[in-house]
Amino acid sequence: MMNSLQDWPEPIVRVQSLSESGLSMIPDRYVKPLSDRPSSNRPENGDANIPIIDLTGLTDDETELSRSTMDRISSACRDWGFFQVVNHGVSPGLMDQARETWRSFFHLPMEIKQAYANSPKTYEGYGSRLGIEKGAILDWSDYYYLHYLPLTLKDYNKWPGSPDYCREVIDEYGKELVKLGGRIMKFLSINLGLDESHLQNAFGGENIGACVRVNFYPKCPQPDLTLGLSSHSDPGGLTILLPDPEVPGLQVRKDDRWITVKPARHAFIVNIGDQIQVLSNANYKSVEHRVIVNSGVERLSLAFFYNPKSDIPIKPIRELVSADKPALYPPMTFDEYRLFIRLNGPKGKSQVESLKSPRCH
């Protein structure tokens, strides 16, 4: 099976090159079926937005957050699977610098970027597709994917060498987001009625995995026919997204409607991934989301994935399993789960749902 992951099944086309070529119609490869197009699901819920939670009072020594803040995090996890955090302790200057550094990378000449082209074997580097199904309908986006943790996978040679300061910025940003991820894990643990370090320990304690995916969505002449990123739930633990402050694009599925997230200034968008759905025995659920594109302006976002150590079997936490609510999922390592996703590409929520017992052997 791994042999099929050595290379892409067909030549890679950079979406940015298509966009910049001035075409007036998108190639058929990017046209989504009618049911998946953004226009077919209107009208949208115009005023709705995911909860915005102020983490003031969150410091390194973890002063107890007010009960009401904890309750808001709890209901956001149960009702939405998504929330925004402000006053989270990461400097606004670093957030802006990280985003603009990556924007500079995507505006470098193509031959410089091509030196970092990725393969399905690791996905690390500069890419333009997910999944390796030949003839698949593609998303209107390019991306850059890199490993931050564990240190054994962190390879500066696979990180962009330009702009000059790029690697330092990525490093500093990663360090701050690992800290923020650890804090959010504490809140989730406490809200599940567990010891504050329980989820973190289930992830491998200090030995977590973390990676960054920078998404670049070029202008699109026919945004109603395609998506920047197809509907999916995140396979990992926790996602901390730095959105484009000027250009909305992320849509979250809520009660069978697509809500376009309105980013708050210098906020991160946090969402629950499939691994936390499994650990929490579906008390918290990962939620489908997708990205729409537009014809007038490009969009760039940074997704930071805070994941379990890749070889620990992830299964429902014993304290969250009872006679009334038996374990819903068999044990599976994140490595096994990730391979499953890579072969299939983004497929809504079908991946995590297909794991439910009685497939337990």
Summarize the structure.
The protein is of the alpha+beta class. It has helices at 15-20, 67-79, 92-106, 110-114, 166-191, 198-202, 274-279, 334-344, 350-353; strands at 52-54, 82-86, 125-127, 142-149, 209-217, 229-232, 238-242, 250-254, 257-260, 268-272, 289-291, 299-307, 313-314, 332-333. The protein is built from 9 helices and 14 strands.
Description:
- This protein has 361 residues and is an alpha+beta fold.
- It has a single domain, classed as Jelly Rolls (Sandwich).
- It has an eight-stranded mixed β-sheet.
- The protein is globular and about 60 Å long.
- The two termini are 22 Å apart.
- InterPro entries: DIOX_N, IPNS-like_FE2OG_OXY, IPNS-like_sf, Oxoglu/Fe-dep_dioxygenase_dom, Plant_2OG-oxidoreductases.
- Keywords: Dioxygenase, Iron, Jasmonic acid signaling pathway, Metal-binding, Oxidoreductase, Plant defense.
- This is Fe2OG dioxygenase domain-containing protein.
